[in-house]
Amino acid sequence: MRVLLVNTSEHTGGASVAAGRLLDALNGNGVKAKMLVTRKTSDRTTVAGLPAAWRYQASFYAERLAIWTANGFRRDHLFDVDPAWTGVDITRLPEFREADVIHLHWINQGMLSLGGLRRILRTGKPVVWTLHDMWPFTGVCHYARECEKWRTGCHHCELLLHSGGAHDMSATTFRRKATAYAGARLSFVACSHWLAGLAAASPLTAGHDVASIPNPICTRRFHPGDKAALRRRLGLPADRKLILFVAYKVTSPLKGVGYLCEALRHLAASHPEVRDGWQLVAVGRESGSLAGRVPVPVTAVDYVSTEAEMMDYYRAADVLAMPSLHDNLPNTIAEAMACGMPCVGFDVGGLPQMIDHRQNGYLAAYRDSEDFARGLLDTLHPAHYAERQAAARRKAEHTYSESAVAGAYIDVYEKLLNT
After folding, report:
1. Residue 52 in contact with residue 112, Cβ under 8 Å?
2. What share of the chain is helix, strand, coil (3-state, %, to 5)?
3. Which of 135, 147, 303, 306 has the fewest CB atoms within 10 Å, measured from its CB?
4. SS3 of 231, please?
5. Are 324 and 284 in contact (CB under 8 A)?
6. What per-residue confidence (pLDDT) applies to 181?
């Protein structure tokens, strides 16, 4: 069986990491898999880049211009929505022609247009689409937040500041998706039960299978290490509790860093020892902006691009703080757990599927910074911290192994091939 995975980026973002790991898992379990990206940046023989990268760049800027115009020439929500008006035709590429199954991942921001997607589906080849966010079953948004219009058909989009209406960009895009999906050999796979439940509720998935399969992780690479030695190498203090916060851009509102800051302020007020005994390690763009916002020292680390370097921070820190307001099945939590790190997050999205409350971490009430503070304190309590470390590692080993995830996807491929 030959499978072609399609993702906009080879390395940037959680979807690219998940797709790359699935590529390795499939190739290690009897499938001949390749991945197609807009621009290849590695020497991996199983990855191919688009032959004319300038076409993708032109599509990217044309689409951003359309959104900017629809928003009354404001930058608000410039990357929160995608109309998929422009993109690249991949159906003529040899990688596409050779494949038995086409496996889409995150294909936005100018890689595939809805017209290009329709051409893929009209070839009759089976298509599996892994959902890394809500976009495949909404009009134009990646996360609908509190909006419920996608359950019946999008319109009056709150993210379109200038042109939202009954027949706005979200409404027309929703209808175009319905036309493209109709009658296609298409199955959707969500990375979490939460997202699968949302997808199944959308009219756009009607008549198509919706499954839930987690992202794989290589637990041979991600494993606990020598915490003391790593702290020395990274220049981190040996005698403090280290709270790790990771995001591509730490100031993104959806990452909820404000709740983490508030939680640390609560703790410092009620437990004065936190000021002298804890430290925040923030990894991601604009991490330096957190200095002065919390009552503990901050180590700010710019965006980490290599897996090996990120593993060092997982192994060196004590707990992962994940105050995301919307999230699917974050690679960050699976990676941290594989390295033996308990996690604290809000009870939202796919996090309850990953964090077993007070076993390998703590699930705080949604948007409740005081409960998040209790979670940090409870998780780090010396009476049960070692037990929660071990439980986190076991969860990663038993749930996200490459063989288990690859096997589940192979079942999906074979079902589509036999219909």
Report:
1. no
2. 40, 15, 40
3. 306
4. helix
5. no
6. 97
Distance CA 158, CA 156 (A): 6
DSSP per position, 271-324 = -THHHHHEEEEEEEETGGGGTTTSSS-EEEEPPP--HHHHHHHHHH-SEEEE--
Q: At residue 44, what is the residue type?
A: R
- Percent pLDDT > 70 in the chain is 96
Contact between 348 and 187 under an 8 Å Cβ cutoff? The reply is no
Phi, psi (5° rounding) for residue 129? -125, 110
Tell me what pLDDT residue 78 has: 63
Q: How far apart are CA 358 and CA 345, in angstroms?
A: 12
- Gyration radius (Cα) of the chain, Å: 22
Q: Which amino acid is present at 199?
A: A
Q: Is 393:338 a contact under the CB 8 Å cutoff? A: yes
In 3D space, the residue among 94, 133, 135 whose CA is nearest the CA of residue 112 turns out to be: 135
Amino acid present at 259: Y
**DSSP strand pairing (298-301 vs 319-322):** unpaired
CA 419/CA 207 separation, integer angstroms: 13
Distance separating alpha carbons of residues 415 and 23, to the nearest angstrom: 19
Which one-letter amino acid corresponds to residue 384?
Answer: H
Number of C-alpha atoms within 13 angstroms, CB side, residue 8? 19
Residue (of 43, 76, 39, 42) closest to 59 by Cα position: 39
CB 81 within 8 A of CB 142: yes
Tens-digit pLDDT profile for residues 378-389? 999 999 999 999
Q: Has residue 273 got a pLDDT over 80? A: yes
- Residue 155 sits at the vertex; the CA angle it makes with 150 and 156, to the nearest 5 degrees, is 120
CA distance 60 to 45: 26
DSSP codes of every residue in 352-383: HHH--BTTTEEEEPTT-HHHHHHHHHHHT-TT
pLDDT in tens, 170-202: 999 999 999 999 999 999 999 999 999 999 999
Chain Cα centroid distance, residue 153: 25
Which of 38-47's residues contact partners 24+ apart within 8 Å by CB, and which partners? Answer: 38/8, 38/9, 38/88, 38/110, 38/111, 39/9, 39/10, 40/10, 41/10, 41/11, 42/10, 42/11, 47/10, 47/23
Task: With beta carbons less than 8 A apart as the criterion, state whether 75 and 162 touch.
Answer: no
d(C-alpha 36, C-alpha 375), whole Å? 41
